[in-house]
Write a structure and sequence with these properties.
Elements (H helix, E strand, L loop, with lengths): L2 H4 L21 H18 L1 H12 L2 H13 L6 H30 L6 H26 L4
Length: about 140
């Protein structure tokens, strides 16, 4: 038998949700693409929160003090750590959207270097950079340094 016949991969033409989804592996480029869309939706939906943070931090000294108190003590029935988690979600969404967008722009400009291996390695690089920067900025947000 040839090597190709031994390693015949399953062929997915019509994916059955109950049978095939458990065995289907999404490649890293697909994961980055889906997360790029999710991060865009998160930033869009949390835009009022982002505008409030920007306004509260720049309006006056009093509003900045209130802004810091919301992050430290909370606001009403919402504790401060939940507000920090929302801010962390915004940080991740921005960083992932930025790095994945730069990856897409690079691939659009350099068509000759785009192949399957580059797609996988650049997608893994985007994931590592966005999660790594999110961890660093999250540690700063939660006061670990």
């Amino acid at each position: 038998m040839t090597e190709l016949a031994k390693k015949k991969r399953p062929e997915f033409r019509n994916i059955n949700v109950f049978n095939d989804v458990r065995t289907y592996r999404l490649p890293p480029a697909g994961i980055v693409s889906i997360l790029h869309r999710i991060s865009g939706v998160i930033m869009f939906l949390l835009l009022p929160f982002i505008i409030w943070m920007f306004d509260a931090s720049l309006s006056s000294e009093f509003s900045f003090a209130r802004f810091k108190a919301v992050f430290n003590e909370g606001c009403g029935f919402v504790p401060g750590w939940i507000i920090k988690l929302v801010a962390l979600a915004i940080i991740w969404a921005y960083l992932h959207h930025l790095t994945a967008g730069l990856r897409h722009l690079f691939m659009d400009v350099n068509h000759n270097v785009v192949n399957k291996e580059f797609g996988k390695s650049s997608a893994l690089t985007v994931l590592v950079i966005s999660v790594g920067l999110t961890v660093v900025l999250g540690a700063k947000l939660f006061g670990l340094y």
